[in-house]
Amino acid sequence: AEELYQELLKNASADSDRAHIYHQIGVMNYHQGKYQEAVKFYEKSLEIKRKTLPEDDASLAITYNNIGEVYRSMGEYSKALEFYEKSHKIFEISLPENHPNLASSYGCIGEVYSSMGEYSKALEYYEKYLE
User: Fold this and answer.
1) Which pLDDT score, from 0 to 100, does residue 131 have?
2) Are 109 and 71 in contact (CB under 8 A)?
């Protein structure tokens, strides 16, 4: 799969295509447990998206969320929280309040607080997740 993505990158003419391919390589690396590589490719995707998309585009939020997920998997909870919160802010602006991605965002932040032992904050986000 990696060779195919590299071939697609060579032939990608649009920034949006490159951003999407980098994002997908990040997903692949994450699922293979190659967390540092995943972050590297998500960051490449993010760099392109930040240059070409509005700051409140939901696509940015998804990439921020995925970076947060990688850091959470690595046990780097403060970094995970930083990226989950960036994602959440965009979702709050760009999505209706009953959208599943917004609810999921509350759950992710709650999980990080729980992992950090900050149970009252975790509970606050879990309750918002369930609303």
Assistant:
1) 82
2) no
Ranges of each domain in the chain: 1-44, 53-131
Count Cβ atoms below 10 Å from residue 2 Cβ, excluding itself: 11
- Tell me the pTM: 0.92
**How does DSSP assign 38-102, residue by residue?**
HHHHHHHHHHHHHHHS-TT-HHHHHHHHHHHHHHHHTT-HHHHHHHHHHHHHHHHHHS-TT-HHH
Distance CA 25, CA 29 (A): 6
User: If you classify domain 53-131 with CATH, what class do you get?
Assistant: mainly alpha
* pLDDT profile of the chain (131 residues), mean per 10: 79 88 96 98 97 94 98 98 98 92 95 97 94 82
117: left (phi over 0), alpha (psi -120 to 50) or beta: left
The amino acid present at 7, given as its one-letter code, is E
